[in-house]
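Q: Structure tokens for this one, please.
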Amino acid sequence: MNERSWDASSSIVPNGRKMGQPNKSSRLIDEDSSDNKNQEVANICLMAIDDPKLQYAYDELDLEFETMVSKYKKTISKLKDENSSLSKANHELKSKIHDMQEIINDFEKNNQDLHNFLS
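A: Here is the predicted structure, written as tokens:
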């Protein structure tokens, strides 16, 4: 790293224990593992505040994340609009098929009537 080395064992996390000390309740409940991960992320963020290089990297990652979220929200919105349009077109085509089938049935009936008349 740089001249400043960060010693995790001497840092206190918000719940009052030193980093590196096991959280006794995490041994009992598996759900605490996600809390520990969240705590780890929070501690990294706190480290970034003290280290300008880490803060810069964190800010860049945050900007990249926000850009991706915005991009994917736009993509999802476009896909929803396209899906709605295609669903409407599908419904209209099914209606046309139904109407055409009725016309075909009428032609077949008229053809049969004509055939019976000529026989």
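A few notes: Residues 9-89 form one domain. Residues 13 and 43 are 7 Å apart (CA to CA).
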